[in-house]
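Risk register update: the risk of archive-format incompatibility is retired. Evidence:
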Amino acid sequence: MNAMRRFQHYACFDWSGQAVARPRGLALATIAAEADARPVLLRPQGGWSRGAALDWLLAHADAGTDMLIGMDLSPTFPFVDAGGYFPGWDESPPDARSLWALVDQLCDGDDHLAAGGFVTHEQARRYFRHGKGDTGDRFGTAGTGRLRAVEHHQRSTRQANSASCFNLVGAAQVGKSSLTGMRVLHRLAGRIPVWPFDPLPERGPVIVEIYTSIAARAAGRGLSRSKVRDADGLHQALAQLGAAPPAPLIAHDDHSTDALMTAAWLRHAARDESLWRSFWHPPALDDAIRITEGWTFGVK
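Archived output:
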């Protein structure tokens, strides 16, 4: 594996689990590797759907575009802490790709690649916190819910303050966005490698899991200021990452600015050899985690 591989293009999807045709929180930005390239916010008429996002990914798979694509979602649930994603359920999958297949199967009746079918399934729903007074009997005893190994590591090293994918309550919940992302990953059918579940190829597109808050911190924004909602804040953050301002935006919603900053951050990181190497080879990532849980790109 060429761990020091650079790419000709970098991209970021800010993802959403909203069960509508065109989620407001779904945004995509790209930036070319050239030093003078500006980040570009890609927005189809009416906004992105998850189906359109899947089509965009498949088109770049067909074209063999040399692009690193960050997706702001968790590609799996915790596994290593309990020896399974759903301990006590005989359909609990053994690895990430089997999990993606199960999620897509149970959500087959959901329009817009949504995930209601999974979180309402008679067995699967037992592992989630659904709302006040509605917590599944297998959610676990910890108030935060179960975490993946990388999420424990993020918290202990203060690189991020990640939430459990089993929590479906509150503004910080990420369960539904992650489930909808798993449906998309399954439907890619291996056409684009997903690191670290797949080896890093010598050419073509690659998908990695990212947290936009990590990019925001690298751009000089603290955890309490990670969201950018104005032009000056966006331009300052991009300048910190060595990127010029994008074309004027209609509105500076934090989904668009997150995508722009994170695409620029991926390119910025690729220019630092020691940083880039540490992103591809985090010491805490072992084979068991690699197969079942994956890792957040940029967490060292």
